[in-house]
Amino acid sequence: MAGTTPGGSIAVLKHLHEYLDHHFRTLHEHRQALQPAAPVFALEHDLNGDDLELLSSAVGGALAEGFDIRHRAQWLPFVVHAAEIGYLYTGDEYWPLFAQKTPGWDCGPQWKINSNRALVKRWFKQFAAKYGGIEPEGAFAANFNIIAWPITHAIMPVDLQRQMAQLLSEARAVMTSEMLDDPNLLGACLATRTGRYSDRFQKLCYNQSLLGHIAAALLSGDDEGSPYLVQSTLVRLVADLTKENESRTWLAQARRSAHSVRSRGFLPKSTTQRTTQRDQPLPTVTNPKLLLRQENGGWHLHLELPDLSALQTENNQVVEELRKRRPKIEGRRQPLPRGALLYPGRTALPAWPRPEIPIIQLEQGLTEVNELIARRCTIAQGPWWVFRKQPGGLATEVKGRFIRPGREYILVGRAGSKPSALPWVTETSVLTDGVHAFDVTTPPVISEAEIIQLATAGLSVVSDVSIQPVGLTPAYWDGEGSVECLAGEPVMLEVRSAQATEKCSVRVNGGIPFLLEWPTGSQQLTFILEDLAVGAHEVHVALLTAGTGTPFTSGSLSVTIRDPHPNLEAATAGTGIRLFATPARPKLTEIWDGRASISVNGPTAVKAQLTIVLRDDNGRELVRHQNGISLPFSDDAWKRLVVQEFRSGKWSRAYNKAESCEVSVSRSGVGFAFLTCERGFHPLRWVLTKQRNGEYEAYLIDRTDGANTEVLLFPVENPLSGEQRDAGRPVVAPANGGMLRATSGNVTAAIILPPDPNRLRQNPSNRPIVHYADNSLPEVQRLIFGHRLWSDADLSADPFSHRQQQLVLDTITTALVSLIAGTRWANLEQKRARLPHAPTGMLDEMEKLVGAATTQRAVARHIASRLWQWVDSPLALREGFKDAIDAISVNSGFDDSRTAAEFLLLLASRPGSLAAWDEAERDMMLRCVMSSPVLIRAARFAVLGTEEIREEPEQPSIRGDQ
């Protein structure tokens, strides 16, 4: 820093403030001249080590002198100081670290926690307005509205730099010169690739502008400056980032790729409007694929699901919506599990998709996200589709709807459409509703008359030229006119022609054609296209005759370059083993308490090794479990394993210290699959500790910025009545346990407190009490949301906490059913609750209480006669119950008996899950149920009846009585 340093904290602060003001103003002017303009970071202060020590001493001196208005007027040194502490931030609480590095900050006569923290935010906002400073965005900024400012201005905290280097390395194959010239575009691309990185790194990357500017600066060469960071800050970042060998290698790889992209051009483009030779739109990387599979004597339609996380570049809420919403697939009745669109997968469609309805939507998803999916996920509209037969009873869609002589196809048309009357087009069986299908075996020569007839169905014939991929096996090839390759791999194509050819003209996306010499005497020409960007491209070739040089035939190929996404597919897919989680990317808490499930696909009956490891925040192994499993491994098998292993003592002791869980499945010669589940980076988090006297204490880690955090304790005895607690003090768990819930703005954290097991043994019949008033919609809503609060709370490691949580949930459900179902059914519920063990022998009484009217008795008999069929299949229960209530649901105001069945079964078993339903739809259905309580009685009979029968095999004396 130029100039001499005066004495006294106020004088030093003033001197530093004036220097920093000039520095940041100059930097802001330079950044504004960039296209697009770039932000300024407080960490770009350009101070050397001695200057930083002087600044830190001056800040400390100001606090020692009372931190009055004279000190606060020189605010830029405080902004730099806060950003420097943000650079050291490792995810724990920011303010304790700030107080540690700033003696006197949290004590003394001038200390006011709220006003001083707000003052830091005000200074950063002033910095943003005056010097073009970057502003926090995304989920991190929403949850941490004060500390997001110094952490964002710290550019990249030290503990996240390794992940940044890895991200740049993994993304190097998809980088383009356009991205390197536009940090916002680069940040949007990188943000879609963070799915398997730590939760905190993902939250940081939600600010795509920040991510892009950091990446653009780091990708500059060793001897190159960057317009996005001052040289001293860039050198500092690179030095810290490359202290580790692997990080240094990753960064070097990414920089080499970026240098290569900058130094080479792409295919030259014409100045004319892009033209396309196809009637069909080019595919996109997020379009699903149609395929047919021959099963049970007919063809079934299947849909290849894309990984839609690539749409995060267009809307930063896409991944979160994909994770928490169930996908609805047109042509399929039931939604898929949450997170299914974060994995490439396949699903069968009983009915052919209707053209007027989007093929994929998210249940209760954000409107803008569903609109984006509708635009980016499309299939051909028909009315005809062509599929080329493949070995193994498969047929893949031919996107261009063209056929070649001497091949076999399946032609599918909407019901009512008429195919061409040709002898080699014969009807075949298709087991998908809404269409009919035809076998097409084309002859070696197709006449002109036949070509005209095929054109009536929108089909064309290609015979003179063929274009196909060669060399590396492509990611996808339909055998005709559409191919997919991974970014970073050269696209090698071969053109074949039986006619004499002199030259071949190649045009990409309507650009300037390239003329290639045709090999003398050969029937094929091979060429390579390099540096095609991620997305869809059309390669058009025209063959020129020998002698005249005029085109005599042409053809085209749709080439889609796919991002080799290191997302869940790369994180979990082995050669022959695939690991799936529902929801996708589950948290450690969701794995522990059973809200998430895991399944593994692989060769049938093959044995594999399942390994589960818990690790602490330093990555140290706490506990390990290995278990032999048989593939495929189902969700139910996983849930049984969780109950068996996670409730044991060693796992319970390790869980409270654990920050992550690793699940892996392997078999030598078959494959390997891997999934990491983090506890996650949360604004509020409860930590439970067991004291020497056996009591549990819960301590709140509050990373939020306000002092308005509210803590309520809901004891098990009165689970819907919260008692106020001090957020700054540990809370002792009640003897019977309870739920502790902290709230700060829109952020919440809740944990189930374990009971004293000795107290439970002394009073095993103690049950919660849930009071309810009149049979009104607000009262029913109160019980639904109360159930949701308890079911969403995290379980502690103590196994008794799960028992108490389930006890409360059952009691709330019983109260809700009793409120709606009427007095007689409420008496039955009370009788059932008083029994010390699971009730048996009550089926007849339940059946009689469903209803007295003829149609109501018929519904009850239908349910009673089929309970055994529904015991082990939730789908069978749902479908069977739909059939049972068909006669009464429509008369009760429900438009669709299938939706009514799903709603009623949830209301009678897990009412809290209805809190996530659309409010208007949920309340309308509740009114229908309240006006026709026979519906809730029937649903409760189905739920309790299947439960009772499921438990009967363990009680042979009762089973023998029946």
Assembly state: single chain
Number of DSSP strands?
A: 35
Poorly predicted parts: 265-283, 567-575, 953-962
DSSP helical segment count: 33
Strand order of the largest sheet: 4-2-1-7-6-9-11-10
Structural class: alpha+beta
**First CA to last CA: what distance?**
92 Å
Look at the structure and give the mean pLDDT: 83
Indicate the topology.
Blueprint lengths: L8 H24 L16 H16 L4 H4 L3 H13 L5 H8 L11 H19 L6 H6 L4 H6 L7 H10 L6 H5 L1 H9 L7 H7 L2 H11 L12 H11 L3 H19 L25 E7 L2 E8 L12 H7 L2 E3 L15 E5 L10 E3 L4 H10 L7 E7 L3 E4 L4 E2 L4 E7 L10 E4 L6 E7 L6 H8 L4 E2 L3 E5 L6 E2 L4 E5 L4 E7 L3 E8 L5 E4 L6 E6 L5 E11 L5 E12 L5 H5 L5 E5 L5 H5 L4 E5 L5 E9 L5 E10 L4 H11 L3 H7 L4 E8 L3 E8 L5 E7 L5 E7 L7 E6 L7 E3 L5 E2 L5 E7 L2 E7 L3 H6 L14 H16 L1 E2 L3 H23 L1 H12 L8 H7 L4 H17 L3 H16 L7 H13 L9 H13 L2 H18 L4 H6 L1
Parallel strand pairs: 8-12, 15-21, 34-35
Antiparallel strand pairs: 1-2, 1-7, 2-4, 3-5, 6-7, 6-9, 9-11, 10-11, 13-16, 14-15, 16-19, 17-18, 17-20, 20-21, 22-23, 24-25, 24-26, 26-27, 28-29, 29-32, 30-31, 30-33, 33-34
Protein traits:
flat, 962 residues, 6-stranded mixed beta sheet, 33 helices, 21% strand
Structure, explained:
- The protein is of the alpha+beta class.
- A hairpin with a 5-residue loop joins β28 and β29.
- The termini are far apart.
- The strands form nine sheets. Strands 4-2-1-7-6-9-11-10 form an eight-stranded antiparallel sheet, with no helix packed on it. Strands 14-15-21-20-17-18 form a six-stranded mixed sheet, with no helix packed on it.
- It has 33 helices and 35 strands.
